Amino acid sequence: MINVFVLQNGRLNQVPIESRNDLEKVGPVWVDLTDPNDDERAWVKAIYGVTLPGEDEVKDIEASARYYEAESGDLHLRTDFLLEEDDGPSRIVTVAFILAKNMLFSVHTDDLPVFRLVRMRARSRPGSITDHMDVLLDLYATDAEYSADALEGIYQQLEEVSRRVLQKEFTDQDAAAVLNAIAQEEDLNGRIRRNMMDTRRAVSFLMRGRLLSAEQFEEARQILRDIESLDGHTSFLFDKINFLMDATVGFININQNKIIKIFSVASVAFLPPTLIASIYGMNFKGWFPELEWTWGYPYAWVLMMVSAVTPFWYFRRRGWLK
Hints:
The protein has ten helices and seven strands. The chain has 322 residues and is an alpha+beta fold. The chain has three domains: 125 residues, CorA soluble domain-like (Beta Polymerase, domain 2), CATH 3.30.460.20; 124 residues, Up-down Bundle (Methane Monooxygenase Hydroxylase, Chain G, domain 1), CATH 1.20.58; 49 residues, no CATH class.
């Protein structure tokens, strides 16, 4: 799908494109392609002289392929964007940017919420965008905001996990659910951190290349400051995740120790009856007066019961069975 945006009074207005003739009639500032087909790639190459990278090229993570200038003078960037999905785990989507002929071309496989948000804001905030570079910086700034919202969601989920971990009764089933939730939030937090690191590298590249005006340079510095604050927050969340993980594992160990303690108490309590049964089970013919007792059998039973109950009573009084 191809989305073309023209700049009118500082606003991004989308122009519907149904054919190559529609694309030839407009002078866009931003051409956004989501999973483009062969025809759309051919239109862009024929009209603007820009060769769009293939899917394998977009996913190339080599350092030399992230930021480079082509022989034609076109500037190529590869930047990661976070994508959260309701029906599955979050993931990172790599977007290929091409800056050519005062236009921004973007190629990606999924429709990203950051791109939708930039389009919506540009229509409602006249004067916020003056050229293609403003569009790119706005995408990076919105990506930082999107990551900040995701971090806030992680914090809220961890607060819920904290309440579950610190509840009065914490069973092994609760622990399993908590560990699963913690693992998901840790994975998302790691993806956000990676996403912010990649955005920082891209913005720093633009600043080092002296490709920005004075106002754009200051905006880029603000984006880097926002990312720096997000890095601190991700570190805080990692610490909180580790604390909850340790607390959960600690409660699991406590529950297991309770079970082991019960078996230990039971084994100690049944040692005296076992000893008595062993003695009276010898049946030696020598000096063994209890063998001739009429009430010897009930006597042995009573003695074993008393020797078993007494340790349990003692352990309970000391609070070892709690």
